[in-house]
Amino acid sequence: MHPETLALRSTHFADANAAAVVSPLYLSTTFERDANYELPHGYLYTRAGNPNRHQLESALAALEGGAVATAFASGQAATMALFQGLQPGDHVIVPDDAYYGTPLLLQDIFSGWGITFTKVDTTQPLAVEEAFRPETKLLCLETPSNPLLKVTDIAAMVRLARSRGAITVCDNTWGTPILQKPLDLGCDIVMHSTTKYLGGHSDVLGGALVFREDTPVAQRIRQIQTLGGAVPSPFDCWLISRGLKTLAVRVRQQSAHAQRVAEFLSGHPAVEQVHYPGLESHAGFAVARQQMILPGAMLSVQVKGGAVEALRFINKLGLIIRATSLGGVESLIEHRASVEGPASTTPANLLRLSVGLEHPDDLIEDLRQALDVV
Ligand code: PLP
């Protein structure tokens, strides 16, 4: 089935009570036993399992082409569970350009548990090769990356990790299964902040890990999910499942809008550089063409000048909303260095733009009038 059909089929289940077309919301935290003291539908207690979470996990596994999925209360809770599956003494490789919370978890939390990590540019195979150690267990990828939109050759990285006995996880939050399928390219695990495109409406937090096979690693993480308890609520799962129904149309449309916005920005005299894998000038253009269906709806722009000019520019915007996060239907822009704090290595003149569903002509007009102040 095509992804849009799969999204609709996998988020629908037959309702035995009322034949409702839309899945009911099962708020119950506990489930009744039958006269034989059996659990008639296999559900015991919502932390261990709930029909809405089960539906979401099945849909995520189907869309990513995985065997099983585990849903969490946020993207960070999913990444946390992934690292909790490691052992003291293990080493992790993470991209030098990635969601800043990923290396921060390793640095501020897991270093105390004896897990070490190396940051490396995963677009450079030789550098990644050099970063491997005998104790490296996990190679983390994020492509396109946050906030520089670097594009990593997933299949090449998987080959490298396998030759060193490590598993590969790819944060597919920006790609989504509509644009790229890391499990098909050999990754062992796909990670998602479902808060973003999968939810799609900036109204629910969530995270997920999807596993290509139901391996002991997947089973261990399921145990961490239910024993640790960082699970999404039934309503969170219901909202994210609803988001999945329109994922394909939203992502394709938003990507088309982003292409137009990126082309406009790259031709503007007040702009120093645009980072978008749909532009031929982008270093990752060729790899993106090969492994992505479309380049996506995220882009970063560096205006001429520094933080002052960047902030003056976004303060003049009238339509595009100044807020962190991404992947919703409304366009958002943010000064990433301010969000990441003093340790940030993001250029001071960089603005990250999540392109939404507004008409691209209106978005371009808003950007044009705001760039006048740079
Ligand atoms: N991964 C990426 C690429 C993200 O952009 C984010 C959040 O911005 C996360 C992970 C963390 O997800 P959450 O905010 O849902 O915990």
Notes on the structure:
With 374 residues, the chain is of the alpha/beta class. The chain has two domains: 3-245, Type I PLP-dependent aspartate aminotransferase-like (Major domain) (Aspartate Aminotransferase, domain 2); 248-371, Aspartate Aminotransferase, domain 1. It is 37% helix and 16% strand. The protein is built from 14 helices and twelve strands. The chain has helices spanning 3-10, 51-64, 75-84, 101-108, 125-131, 154-163, 176-179, 216-228, 234-245, 247-266, 285-291, 307-315, 336-340, 360-371, and strands spanning 68-72, 91-95, 116-120, 136-142, 167-171, 189-193, 207-211, 271-275, 298-303, 321-322, 332-335, 350-354. Strands 1-7-6-5-4-2-3 form a seven-stranded mixed sheet, with helices on both faces. Helix 1 runs antiparallel to helix 2 (51-64), helix 2 runs parallel beside helix 9 and helix 3 packs across helix 4 (101-108). The model has no long low-confidence stretch (mean pLDDT 97).
In short:
The protein is of the alpha/beta class.
Relevant terms:
374 residues; binds pyridoxal-5'-phosphate; Aspartate Aminotransferase, domain 1; seven-stranded mixed beta sheet; Aspartate Aminotransferase, domain 2
Small molecules in complex:
pyridoxal-5'-phosphate
Q: At the third CATH level, what is the topology name of the largest domain?
A: Aspartate Aminotransferase, domain 2
Q: What is the H/E order?
A: HHEHEHEHEHEHEEHHHEHEHEEHEH
SSE class: alpha/beta
Termini separation:
48 Å
Unreliable stretches (pLDDT < 50, length at least 5) are none
Indicate the overall shape: globular
- Order of strands, main sheet, comes to 1-7-6-5-4-2-3
Number of strands: 12
Instruction: Give a short account of the largest sheet.
Output: 7 strands, mixed
Query: Can you give the mean pLDDT?
Result: 97
Supply the CATH class of the largest domain. Answer: Alpha Beta
CATH superfamily of the largest domain: Type I PLP-dependent aspartate aminotransferase-like (Major domain)
Count of DSSP-assigned helices: 14
Portion in strands:
15-25%
Helix residue percentage: 25-40%
CATH architecture name of the largest domain: 3-Layer(aba) Sandwich
Q: What number of structural domains do the residues give? A: 2
Radius of gyration: 21 Å
